[in-house]
Structures are given as structure tokens and as C-alpha cells.
Specification:
The complex is a heterodimer of chains A (317) and B (329). Chain A has 317 residues and is mainly alpha-helical. Helices cover 79% and strands 0% of the residues of chain A. The longest helix of chain A has 36 residues, at 87-122. Chain A is globular, with a radius of gyration of 24 Å. The mean pLDDT of chain A is 80. Chain B has helices at residues 2-5, 9-12, 15-23, 31-42, 44-61, 63-66, 98-134, 136-151, 154-162, 169-179, 182-196, 199-206, 211-247, 259-267, 279-303, 310-319. Mean pLDDT of chain B is 74; it is low at 1-35 and 319-329. In chain B, α5 (44-61) packs across α7 (98-134), α8 runs antiparallel to α11 (182-196) and α14 runs antiparallel to α15. Chain B is mainly alpha-helical and 329 residues long. The chains are: A mainly alpha (317), B mainly alpha (329). Chains A and B meet through α1, α6, α7, α9 and α11 of A and α1, α8, α9, α13 and α15 of B.
């Protein structure tokens, strides 16, 4: 277990360094020079030279990379061209709201997905299973924004239940929560894909677990079927979902960009989208770095949690 | 990585049977695919998906020859016109015929889908096969590169790179191909790692075949089945990616036409009740993506070497339908 943990952490560190190299390369792929982007097109060559000298942009690339990493470790992600604010501030003030949005939608996906998966497992190879699986397949395959648009068309345009746009000017998490009606649609849209994958993984494990000896023993002892499901099968089916939870982080983040853009939710996805429209590279790459590190950490935590929760792994090797 | 501990169900399910049916025909490289073709013709899911794709392709490429529309000039006299005899699906805010636009937009989507599906699969296949054959430090480094690229959602990278260039169909095909190979590479590597230890690979090695010969003549043909499956999903994913990109307003600028842009323009008018600007592109897009996913899912059953019909049931019983995860969602 210790050896496995060390190996796993080592891999995660390697990938984080990889993500830093990636954002560094992308920063230098940016068309035109950094000096031009900051000083504007009419800056004189002398000004550009001074700027390059100040920020070490005339040094060899590997030295620049060292400087870049040092800055990152000090929490300096650069300054937004468009908003003239430090990228770290911009991201930090949006992160709590994103944590709320992503957390709620993942929670919703778990609450719907896992029981649905177990229900399918109990009824597997029956018509109900096929119908539910088909529904998930369609929802999972259909583009995110289609689901968003259909919900807007139905609930906002047709029946006026919700408003399609998040009210502007909200900055605090509390403010987001007070306007919970505006929060419903983004959370629902974001959870659809996760529901599909969680339920299918829960289903496949539950099918294996239902055939296991301990289930038969429990039934033979006279434990009611419902209790077998909630006490034994549910717990064991939750295990692989933890791994999927870690793995699905990138897809949830990508979904958040679209959902936040559609619903005008003031999170990192929306910041990212608007920065892409205005070619604000420091923000784009800062966000990319944060997302990459978050994904690596998420995967690592999921793997560790899996190891801790599953006695077969905890006590094995 | 977590992905290695839980690989996509489809490939893990029965590597033995997949490799053994394919393994027997290694004397005739390229035969691996042939075995699948006859099964493909009898697979209802694959054929229905294929039928839909052919219909949509005909609609997009032959349709404009039969249904002549003006797709070039703006005509504000007939803006936002409802469906009628002159314009079967109405007109958009610029007075351009929606049905005709649907056809032109579909052309670019389909061309992009096929080009990216093939290019990224070839790239990923080579990278994965080389990584698997190398082993050791080289393999570890090559895999960390893939881990890095997969740590950042591909759609996020796509948005960044797309905002750096002036986009047209060619550029966006290049960008998408350059970004979507890592998933394929990881699958192919896993396949190569298990194939390496099989008898035919050992035999080839004993007969004095070089590493590269084994790689090109024994490994690559045997991973073709997996690659065809991922390529099919790749087509669906890249069509989706282009539409999502256009939907966010970062796609290729006009006069480039595609379904995502049509949707964005239409959404602005949804409140005005101009439904014909939103639902047609939405429906066609969903149908195409679903059709390719269906084909991929069915191919997956065939490649894993099981009888059609029973295969679907057996796989579902064990793993559920969930296909190889999309990279863009």
C-alpha cells in the first residue's frame, strides 16, 4: 500500500510538471509577442526591449521556464490583459461558486445515478432496464447544450418556471444560494452526463455483487430483499463510483464551460469562455493550469480513497 | 493513473477472445478487419446507424443539387421568415434558407468528422504502439505525456488553441486531430502490451524479426479492430466538438456554415418564437452524433469477438452499455 501510494504520488507530481510545461508552451505559441499584447501595437521597439528585459523575456527558454515555475509556486498566474487584474484573484473569487455548482450537480448525479443503477441491476435483462439504459444513452450522447436549450425552451420560454439567465452582479456564494431558482437549471444540465455514467457503473458492479455469495447468505439468513440492497449491495456498488468520480472531473469541467456560458453563471467556465472570446491568454492558461492540477489531485484522491475504503486493497500486497 | 486501473469496459471485458479470433489471421495482415465485415452486415444496430449516416450524407451532399438556395448573399427582405412553400424550413435572421443552410453546414461537419476520426486514430495508433513496444523509461515518459494531455479536458485545450488561429475547416481539422489522439494511444498501448506476450509475437521474435517489423506487421494490424471502434466514436466526438465550439462563438467565422453556428443564431430568436431556426439543426446534430455512437457501440461488440445479438446482451449484463467515454463532454 505504501509503495503503491508513493508510486501514485510520484506519477501525479510528474503530470503536474507536465501541465506546467504544457501551459508554458501554449503561452509561447500565442501569436505576436507578450510585450505587444501588453503594451499595444504602437509601442516603440525600445519600449518592447525594456519590457522584455524587465520580465526576462529575452532569456533562453529554459531559464524563462524556471522563472515561470517560480512565479507559479508563489501563486502568481499573471495579469489579465482584458480585466487588468491578477489572474489568481479572478480565479480565486470564482472558485467557491464553481465548487458550489460542481458539488451540487455531482451530488444530484450520485443521488439519482446510483439508485437508478441498482434498480437497473435488479431488473436487468428486463424491458425496464433497456428503457432506462436507452434513455441514459441518448442523454449521454446528445450534446450538453442541446439539453440546456431544450430545458430553456420548455421551462423558460413555454412555461416561465425559471429564468434562463443567471442574475448579474452576484458575487458571494450566499447570493448564489438566495437565487436558488436560477441555480436549478445549470445544476440539472451539468449533472445529466454524470448521471448516465454513474448509473451505468453502479449497475455493472451491482450485477456482479448481486451474484456474490454474501448476498445469497444474507438472503438465506432471512434478511429482507430491500435491506440486502441498501445494506450490502449499495455499499459495495458505491466503491467503483469513487474512481469514476475522480475520472469524470475533466468532463464535468468541460461541461461547466458550456453550462455557465448558456446560463450566464458567474463561475470559472464563464470567465474562461469570455477570455477565449477576447483572446485573454493569461486567464486562459491560468485557468487551464488550475483545472489540470485539480484533475490530477482529484484522480489521486479518488485512488487513495478507493484504497482506504476497500479492505481488499488496504490489506493486500 | 486511475484510468489504467479501470479501463473502458469494452476492451477489458474479454481480451482473450478478441485477440484469439484476430490472432489466427496474422499470417494475412489486414485480415483482422475482414472477419468483422461479414458480422457487421448482420448487426442491426450498426447497419441502422450506418443507414442514418448514409441518408444524412446524401441529404448534405446531394440535397443542394436538388434544392437550390442562396447561401451567399444576405437578404433582409425575407429575414426570419416562417416555413412555407418557398422556404421549406423558413429563413434565418439574414434571410438565408434554413434547409439549404442545414445541408451546407452538414457538409463541413461530416468532412471534419471523418478527417479527424481517421487522422487522430492513425496518430494515436502509432504513438501507442511505439510506446507499448519500447517499454521501460521511454514508455513511462511517453505515457506521462499522455497523462498530461488527458489531465486537461480536451475541450478546454481546443478552446485555447482555436482562439489562437484564424479558423477554417482545414485548420480546425488539424487542431482537433492534434488534440484527440491521446485516448486512442492509451488504448492501443494497453492492447500492444497484452499482444506482445502472445505466441505469434514470440514466434516472430524467435524467427529474427526486428522490433519495428513486429510493430508494423504484427501489432498494428491486430489493434485495427480497436482503432476502428475509437475512430467511429472520434467522428461523433469531433462533430460534437465543432458544434460546441461554434455554439460558444469561437468557431470558424462566417461565411463558414455549420450546425453549431446556426444554433447560436437561432437561440437569440427562441424567445421570438422562431422555432425553425433552432430545432432543425438541433435534431440533425443529435441524430448524427447518436448514429455514430450506435455504430461505434455495435462495432465494439463485434471487435470483442462475440456473436452478434448474444454479444450485446452478454456485454450489457456485465458492463452496461457505456461506450468509450467521449473526450469532449
Amino acid at each position: 500500500m505504501t509503495w503503491y501510494l508513493l508510486r501514485r504520488v510520484g506519477q501525479a507530481v510528474a503530470v503536474v510538471i507536465g501541465v506546467m510545461i504544457l501551459t508554458f508552451i501554449l503561452l509561447h505559441m500565442e501569436p505576436g509577442s507578450v510585450a505587444r499584447a501588453v503594451l499595444g501595437l504602437r509601442a516603440t521597439p525600445a519600449r518592447v526591449a525594456i519590457f522584455d528585459d524587465t520580465y526576462g523575456l529575452n532569456k533562453p527558454l529554459y531559464q524563462q521556464f524556471v522563472i515561470y515555475v517560480k512565479q507559479l509556486l508563489h501563486g502568481n498566474l499573471g495579469v489579465s490583459y482584458q480585466l487588468q487584474q491578477p489572474v489568481s484573484t479572478l480565479i480565486a473569487e470564482r472558485l467557491p461558486r464553481d465548487a458550489l455548482l460542481l458539488g451540487l450537480s455531482t451530488l444530484l448525479a450520485l443521488i439519482i445515478g446510483v439508485p437508478a443503477g441498482i434498480y437497473q441491476a435488479v431488473h436487468h435483462n428486463q424491458l425496464v432496464d433497456d428503457v432506462v439504459a436507452g434513455t441514459w444513452f441518448t442523454l449521454y450522447s446528445a450534446p450538453d447544450f442541446m439539453e440546456a436549450l431544450l430545458l430553456i425552451a420548455l421551462l423558460c420560454v413555454q412555461f416561465h418556471v425559471f429564468q434562463p439567465n443567471f442574475p448579474g452582479g452576484i458575487t458571494s456564494v450566499g447570493g448564489v444560494l438566495t437565487d436558488w431558482r436560477a441555480l436549478v437549471l445549470p445544476v440539472v444540465v451539468l449533472s445529466i452526463n454524470s448521471v448516465a455514467s454513474f448509473s451505468q457503473y453502479a449497475r455493472s458492479t451491482a450485477i456482479q455483487e448481486l451474484a456474490a455469495d454474501y448476498v445469497r447468505v444474507a438472503r438465506a439468513k432471512g434478511v429482507p430483499p430491500r435491506q440486502v440492497l441498501t445494506r450490502h449491495v449499495l455499499r459495495n456498488s458505491l466503491l467503483p463510483v469513487i474512481t469514476i468520480l475522480g475520472m469524470s472531473l475533466p468532463s464535468i469541467v468541460a461541461g461547466a464551460v458550456i453550462a455557465e456560458a448558456v446560463f450566464n453563471f458567474p463561475g470559472m467556465g464563464q470567465l474562461f469562455w469570455q477570455s477565449a472570446l477576447s483572446h485573454d491568454f493569461p486567464v486562459l492558461l491560468g485557468a487551464t493550469l488550475i483545472i489540470g492540477v485539480a484533475t490530477v489531485t482529484g484522480n489521486l484522491l479518488a485512488d487513495i480513497a478507493y484504497g482506504v475504503l476497500d479492505p481488499r486493497i488496504r490489506h493486500g500486497s | 493513473m486511475a484510468a489504467e486501473t479501470a479501463p473502458p469496459a469494452s476492451l477489458e471485458m474479454d481480451p482473450g477472445s478478441a485477440a484469439s479470433t484476430v490472432g489466427q489471421v496474422t499470417a494475412r495482415p489486414g485480415g483482422a478487419g475482414r472477419l468483422s465485415w461479414s458480422e457487421l452486415l448482420h448487426n442491426k444496430r450498426a447497419m441502422s446507424g450506418l443507414g442514418i449516416v448514409v441518408l444524412i450524407a446524401l441529404f448534405c451532399f446531394v440535397g443542394p443539387l436538388l434544392y437550390h438556395t442562396n447561401q451567399v448573399t444576405v437578404n433582409l427582405n425575407i429575414e426570419n421568415g416562417p416555413p412555407g412553400p418557398g422556404h421549406l424550413l423558413g429563413t434565418d435572421p439574414y434571410g438565408i434558407d434554413v434547409l439549404g443552410r442545414l445541408m451546407v453546414g452538414g457538409q463541413s461537419s461530416l468532412e471534419l468528422g471523418f478527417a479527424v476520426g481517421i487522422a487522430s486514430t492513425v496518430l494515436g495508433m502509432l504513438y501507442g504502439a511505439i510506446s507499448g513496444m519500447l517499454g521501460g523509461v521511454g514508455d513511462a515518459i511517453m505515457m506521462r505525456v499522455i497523462d498530461t494531455l488527458l489531465a486537461v479536458p480536451t475541450f478546454i485545450l481546443l478552446i485555447i488553441v482555436a482562439s489562437m488561429f484564424t479558423l477554417n475547416l482545414g485548420v480546425i481539422i488539424l487542431i482537433l486531430s492534434a488534440l484527440s489522439w491521446p485516448g486512442v494511444a492509451r488504448l492501443v498501448r494497453a492492447q500492444v502490451l497484452s499482444l506482445r506476450t502472445r505466441e505469434f509475437a514470440q514466434a516472430a521474435k524467435t524467427m529474427g524479426a526486428t522490433r519495428w517489423r513486429i510493430l508494423l506487421y504484427h501489432m498494428v494490424p491486430n489493434t485495427l479492430g480497436v482503432c476502428i471502434v475509437t475512430a467511429t466514436f472520434g467522428v461523433a466526438d469531433s462533430i460534437y466538438a465543432l458544434s460546441a465550439l461554434s455554439f460558444l462563438g469561437i468557431g470558424p467565422p462566417p461565411p463558414f456554415a455549420d450546425w453549431g453556428t446556426m444554433l447560436t443564431n437561432g437561440v437569440d430568436n427562441l424567445f421570438n418564437g422562431y422555432w425553425w431556426q433552432v430545432y432543425p439543426p438541433l435534431i440533425v446534430l443529435v441524430i448524427v452524433v447518436l448514429a455514430f455512437r450506435q455504430i461505434g457501440d455495435a462495432l465494439n461488440d463485434i471487435v470483442s469477438g462475440q456473436q452478434p445479438g448474444r454479444a450485446v446482451r452478454r456485454r450489457r449484463r456485465r458492463f452496461g452499455w457505456l461506450p468509450l467515454a467521449s473526450q469532449y463532454e
